[in-house]
Amino acid sequence: MFRTSHLRQAAIVAASTVMAGLPVADASTRPETITTIVRHIATACPDADLVAQPRSAFTPAPPGNALFRFQLGKARNAVICLVNEIRQREGRSTLSFPKAIKRRGVPNQPGGMAEAANLHANQAAALRWWGTKEQVGNCEPQEHNPSLCDAHINPQTKSTPTSRLQDAGYDKRCKNGWGSGENAYTGWGAASITPRVAVERWMSSKPHYDNIMKPEWRETQVGVAWGSASPTAPANEPGLTYVQVFGYCNE
Prior knowledge:
Layout: E1 2-3, E2 9-18, H1 34-42, H2 61-89, H3 112-127, H4 133-136, H5 161-167, E3 178-188, H6 195-203, H7 206-213, E4 219-226, E5 239-249
Antiparallel strand pairs: 1-2, 2-3, 3-5, 4-5
Helix pairs in contact: 1-6, 2-6, 3-5
C-alpha cells in the first residue's frame, strides 16, 4: 500500500503464473531512478498524465457516456504505451494487445485478455476489497501478509488471474502451453490516478517490475475502471482502478 498523503493512498498488487511450457524468468534488476525514467518515456506516450473525469463531468445521454468511456480507453492505451516503451528500453520485446473477440450470433463468446482485465477492474472498483482483512472481512488473505486482502482473488466469485483468462477463452488456442500474469493498481485524488503514476508505482515495486519485464510475455491488455478499489477511498475523491494482464500462448 502506498500513501501519497494522509488522504490519498494507492494499492499495488502483482501475480504471475506459468501454466505450461516456458519457465519463469529470473528476476531483473530494478532501475534506480524510476520517476526519471518514466518521466522521460512518458513524452512518447499520449495521455500519460491524463486525469480522468467522473461521469458527471460529461453531458447527459449517449454522447456523454461515450466520451466518459473514451477517456478510460485513452488511459488504457497510455499504460500499454508506457510499459512497451520501458520494455524496449530494457531490451525486452514489445507486447501486442489483442482486442476482445465477439462473434455475431454466438452468445457468451469469450473476449480474451481485454475481457478479463476489464472484468476484474470493474468488479474491484464496485466491491472495493483491496484493503485489510479487518476493513473488508470477507476476502482471501494475501499469502505473504494474511492481514491484507488478496486483490487478485475476487471475494465473491473466487476468480483468479488464471481462471479469468480461462473463462475469457485465452487458453483455447494454446495447444503447447501458456502463461499469465497480472499487475493491479488503485488510487484516488487527481495526483494519484494518472497512467504515469500507476506505471511508476509498479516500476518502483520489485515484484511488479519483474512482472513487467518478463521476457516470456508476448501479449498484454489493460482494464481501467472509474472508482478506487480501496475501502478507505473518500467518496468525493476521483479514483481509478487499473488491471494489466500479461500472457504468452504457444499455439
